[in-house]
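Hi support team,

I've been running sequence recovery on a batch of backbones for a student project. Most finish fine, but this one hangs at about 90% for roughly twenty minutes before it completes. I'm not sure whether the input is malformed or the queue is just slow. I've pasted the structure tokens below so you can try to reproduce it. Let me know if you need the job ID as well.

Thanks,
M.K.
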């Protein structure tokens, strides 16, 4: 028995030890290191125009399901110097072979960059980014990116296409799974954490990889939530809500930026000089390189802003795009464009410099095979401390949405009917963008139930994800009738969100809802485990289920993390990073809306509302329950001179019977402004652990920047007047205090 306890403590201990090595990294823009410029210039002076264009070219390999291959044409392109960078190419054998061609068979011997979408883990898969964001645990999120980088760089990679920092206010858009949700302030903090995690202490370390902030800019706001669709909004709105996360990532040191597929204000991002040259380079002083998204330069022909691909390439280079992903446009047309004077040698040289600098920075010229160490590759993948970190973050990402009759935590010895299309599944649980993750390494929910928890589990699938076949219902209902508690895992398949995963409906696919409601009719307590990549609209389940856990897709440690929470080994503390609507008709829906001239009034028809549904969401931003409860005192506010503007204090008490963590959230409202202001905006949070009965005083500091906004004349700053400060455990349940500045 004692041995068991010690064994259970091992992952926690490993995690503790590994976190000790996670030094805080100071945020600062990427700057080329001293001495690099001379080396870059010396190299550049020897390069032909074709070789220069090769450095601005990025191609994918044909990574197939059974293993890596590469089209012979690309190998020739590497050999001739026409392709200087590859993506979708990992594992050291594969990388080593191609790097060898580049450094041994080309004239200039310039090493290749190897990029890949390492989004939420490489081999050890962590929760999808939206799930990680629900942890509100910046240290754990940074650690997740660090582990991903440690594994990915041990597999030959030196560049990740992450973090995606697009703000997502529309759950129909499938890529919300890859971001940090709807809030700009939280999104900025998470963007910084992820950049620090991927890039480590310094570029040049063998476990540091280039981060790539994407998708610049505004990709998260396509009209109707439809993938790749047009983005159009006022500049004020764009700067206030959509741009700050990219800026935060750049200022945290991100070395590269990816353009987006969409147009903004009529100009596609990959040819948008105002965005790239203006905002990114001139306003934010970004010194790394800019890469397009996959063939997004070519797509400017479809956008209808250029007559052909040659002109598309000119628009991109003139806008400030350095590298062409997969389009082959620079490779095919840039020479001709130069001849015609449509682009200049100076522009090409500058783009090449930006790419070469980072190759030097990574230390590839000293050792092009530095990311190809077989011993490291063997040791790093799924290392026990990586799995421990994944389990830790997976538990923290779970959000308890409902818990009636105190059905959770489950009690030892209860007979469980485990039901649902995702209860015994592994492949969907590692989610979309799952790197080199292997479903077989994933702990399914069914496997997470262990005899050690004293549970007796009877499993019946019930139905599949997207079918109309009800033949499994009978067995599921029978299992439920013979059980003490029903646990049912339902949701989406991994490919139902992510890129090109927009949905017009937000309910559970297929007949899953019907199955849940049938089970609820048995009168047994029903615990619904949601596994999905976006907020869902499930009002009937919200009403009828006894308990609901939002678990997103939690990755390799899914089953362990969920049962840790089900049995109370871990008290849930996750909070929603996106609003959950009651109906798709409410979308877009977000907590920081404007008051309007006719704010919602349930008694008056002539106010801003729907006639068939309340304005309020099913579950608001920041919401999440615990097995204990928390109370907040009235906040107190003090004015401060000398830099810090306001100090706010509040007492938070654990009013329940179990130790638990709470995310205390601080919101601000500027009551009267020169332009309309949101009814609240998140400006801080603290995650704290409290013992039963324990009270902690929390102190928040609001600086001038926190209260600044784009005023009527578009200058950024504060305005005197009255502010409302709100603190609470979610965006709706808050205590308020007013202050005049
Ligand atoms: C297209 C996606 O939009 C982008 O996020 C990704 O990095 C590239 N493909 C490369 O896979």
């Amino acid at each position: 028995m004692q041995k068991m306890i010690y064994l259970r403590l091992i992952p926690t201990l490993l995690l503790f030890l590994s976190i000790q090595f996670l030094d805080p990294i100071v945020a600062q823009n990427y700057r080329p290191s001293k001495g690099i410029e001379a080396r870059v210039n010396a190299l550049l002076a020897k390069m032909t125009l074709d070789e220069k264009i090769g450095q601005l070219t990025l191609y994918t390999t044909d990574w197939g399901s059974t293993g890596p291959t590469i089209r012979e044409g690309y190998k020739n392109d590497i050999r001739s110097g026409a392709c200087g960078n590859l993506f979708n190419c990992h594992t050291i054998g594969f990388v080593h072979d191609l790097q060898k061609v580049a450094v041994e068979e080309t004239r200039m011997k310039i090493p290749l960059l190897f990029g890949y979408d390492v989004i939420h883990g490489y081999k050890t898969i962590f929760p999808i980014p939206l799930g990680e964001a629900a942890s509100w645990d910046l240290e754990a999120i940074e650690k997740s990116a660090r582990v991903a980088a440690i594994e990915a760089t041990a597999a030959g990679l030196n560049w990740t296409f992450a973090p995606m920092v697009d703000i997502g206010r529309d759950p129909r858009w499938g890529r919300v799974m890859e971001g940090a949700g709807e809030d700009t302030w939280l999104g900025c903090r998470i963007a910084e954490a992820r950049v620090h995690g991927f890039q480590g202490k310094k570029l040049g370390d063998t476990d540091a990889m280039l981060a790539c902030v994407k998708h610049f800019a505004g990709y998260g706001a396509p009209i109707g939530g439809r993938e790749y669709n047009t983005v159009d909004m006022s500049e004020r709105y764009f700067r206030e809500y959509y741009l700050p996360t990219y800026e935060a990532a750049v200022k945290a040191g991100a070395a590269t930026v990816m353009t987006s597929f969409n147009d903004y204000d009529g100009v596609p991002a990959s040819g948008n000089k105002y965005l790239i040259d203006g905002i990114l380079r001139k306003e934010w002083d970004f010194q790394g390189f800019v890469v397009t998204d996959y063939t997004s330069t070519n797509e400017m022909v479809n956008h209808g802003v250029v007559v052909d691909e040659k002109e598309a390439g000119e628009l991109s280079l003139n806008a400030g795009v350095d590298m062409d992903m997969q389009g082959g446009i620079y490779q095919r047309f840039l020479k001709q464009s130069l001849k015609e004077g449509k682009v200049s040698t100076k522009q090409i040289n500058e783009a090449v410099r930006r790419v070469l600098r980072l190759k030097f920075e990574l230390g590839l010229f000293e050792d092009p095979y530095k990311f190809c160490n077989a011993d490291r590759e063997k040791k790093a993948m799924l290392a026990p401390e990586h799995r421990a970190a994944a389990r830790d973050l997976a538990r923290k990402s779970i959000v308890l949405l409902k818990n009636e009759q105190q059905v959770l935590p489950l009690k030892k010895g209860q007979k469980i009917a485990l039901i649902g299309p995702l209860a015994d599944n592994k492949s969907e649980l590692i989610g979309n963008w799952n790197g080199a993750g292997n479903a077989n390494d994933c702990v399914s929910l069914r496997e997470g139930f262990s005899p050690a928890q004293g549970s007796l589990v009877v499993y019946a699938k019930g139905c599949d994800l997207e079918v109309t076949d009800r033949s499994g219902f009978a067995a599921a209902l029978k299992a439920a009738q013979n059980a003490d508690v029903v646990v049912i895992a339902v949701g989406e398949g991994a490919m139902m969100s992510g890129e090109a995963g927009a949905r017009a409906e937000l309910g559970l696919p297929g007949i899953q809802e019907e199955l849940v409601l049938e089970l609820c009719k048995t009168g047994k307590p029903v615990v619904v485990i949601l596994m999905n990549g976006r907020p869902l609209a499930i009002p009937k389940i919200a009403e009828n289920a006894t308990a609901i856990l939002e678990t997103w897709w939690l990755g390799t440690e899914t089953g362990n993390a969920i049962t840790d929470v089900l049995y109370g080994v871990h008290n849930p503390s996750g909070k929603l990073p996106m609003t959950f609507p009651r109906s798709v008709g409410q979308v877009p829906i977000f907590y920081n809306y404007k008051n309007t001239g006719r704010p919602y009034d349930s008694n008056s028809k002539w106010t801003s509302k729907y006639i068939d549904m309340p304005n309020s969401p099913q579950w608001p931003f920041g919401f999440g329950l615990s097995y204990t409860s928390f109370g907040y005192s009235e906040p107190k506010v003090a004015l401060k001179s000398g830099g810090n503007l306001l100090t706010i204090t509040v007492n938070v008490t654990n009013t329940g019977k179990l130790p638990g963590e709470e995310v205390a959230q601080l919101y601000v409202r500027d009551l009267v402004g020169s332009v309309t202001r949101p009814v609240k905006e998140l400006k801080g949070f603290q995650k704290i652990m409290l013992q039963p009965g324990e009270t902690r005083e929390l102190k928040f500091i609001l600086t001038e920047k926190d209260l600044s906004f784009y005023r009527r004349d578009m200058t950024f700053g504060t305005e005197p007047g009255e502010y409302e400060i709100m603190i609470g455990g979610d965006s709706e349940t808050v205590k308020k205090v007013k202050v005049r500045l």
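--
Follow-up from support: It reproduced on our side and the slowdown came from queue contention, not your input. The pocket of 1-deoxynojirimycin is lined by residues 117, 161, 214, 293-294, 499 (CB under 6 Å). No action needed from you.
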